[in-house]
Fold this sequence. Notes:
The strands form four sheets. The protein has a four-stranded antiparallel beta sheet, with helices on both faces. It has a two-stranded antiparallel ribbon with strand order 4-5. The protein is of the alpha+beta class. The protein has three domains: 19-170, NADH Oxidase (3-Layer(aba) Sandwich), CATH 3.40.109; 184-299, no CATH class; 306-345. The chain has 15 helices and ten strands. Helix content is 42%, strand content 12%. The chain starts with a helix and ends in a 10-residue tail after the last helix. A hairpin with a 5-residue loop joins strand 4 and strand 5. It has helices at 2-13, 16-21, 37-47, 84-87, 93-119, 136-142, 184-191, 193-197, 220-229, 235-238, 241-245, 247-257, 266-269, 306-320, 327-345, and strands spanning 51-56, 74-81, 124-127, 147-148, 154-155, 163-170, 208-210, 213-215, 271-273, 284-286. Helix 1 packs parallel to helix 5, helix 3 runs antiparallel to helix 5 (93-119) and helix 14 runs antiparallel to helix 15.
Amino acid sequence: xxxxxxxxxxxxxxxxxxxxxxxxxxxxxxxxxxxxxxxxxxxxxxxxxxxxxxxxxxxxxxxxxxxxxxxxxxxxxxxxxxxxxxxxxxxxxxxxxxxxxxxxxxxxxxxxxxxxxxxxxxxxxxxxxxxxxxxxxxxxxxxxxxxxxxxxxxxxxxxxxxxxxxxxxxxxxxxxxxxxxxxxxxxxxxxxxxxxxxxxxxxxxxxxxxxxxxxxxxxxxxxxxxxxxxxxxxxxxxxxxxxxxxxxxxxxxxxxxxxxxxxxxxxxxxxxxxxxxxxxxxxxxxxxxxxxxxxxxxxxxxxxxxxxxxxxxxxxxxxxxxxxxxxxxxxxxxxxxxxxxxxxxxxxxxxxxxx
Length: 355
């Protein structure tokens, strides 16, 4: 898993400099002043994006250390679908390939969309994948592309949470979309499959008020340890009926029967945990009503800043390997520390904005 993540990071590092410079690029044509919403929407379909929406780029959701980075007022929210078959194997390396492989496709697609908007005569700045400037889900909701699900992810009518998000900010004249009530909030409170199946018990059954929004809050400290130890987890995405069967089929079944499609079945709820790195943690198949158990030490994760965590891990390595006999291993640890700090300092942030 770690080897694959390093390989993925190497691929993405080719795109980061290009993505970070998009805000400084000048248009390649003279603007007409006409609304270009439909032109951009049509281009997104031609390019293969799952969905697109337009809204104000709300500065309330911009990360503190990226406020000076964002230059343009309008947000173009674009989603790219993640492979269904790979996602349904989660947690697994195949699902991780589906996840990160989508980023590797999405990055150059986003750059091509920037070039298109520049050709219309307007500025365009790319945010994501993996180097987002703001919490994406609130703006995707504002653009009418979905609603926040009980699993803490954006639920879309076309692919559930099985999509990767990207924003382009621009000064192009566009018409904003409006939020849509797809019925997901009410349905999630009835469904609860993701809540019931979360191995870390990280999803809240009842909504709470959090930062001005009533939501099913995700408990980060119970989620992240499972993600890091079980191949990215993603069980809450895999077992969502809307992801598995599609919103139309799920809603029609509920209207007709009052039942949640697939709930209580192995087809929807079953998952297998693999843990190959240490062999210390629970593995095996878990069907409906079955969950793994963990002791308290399982949920211990680093506190403080990412810089502090990286430094603590490097110091721990030095303490354990202070004889200086393996120069190659020492150099590898040093270079890994350097690369990790560079990644942190450049602000390359994942799109896990569900927390």
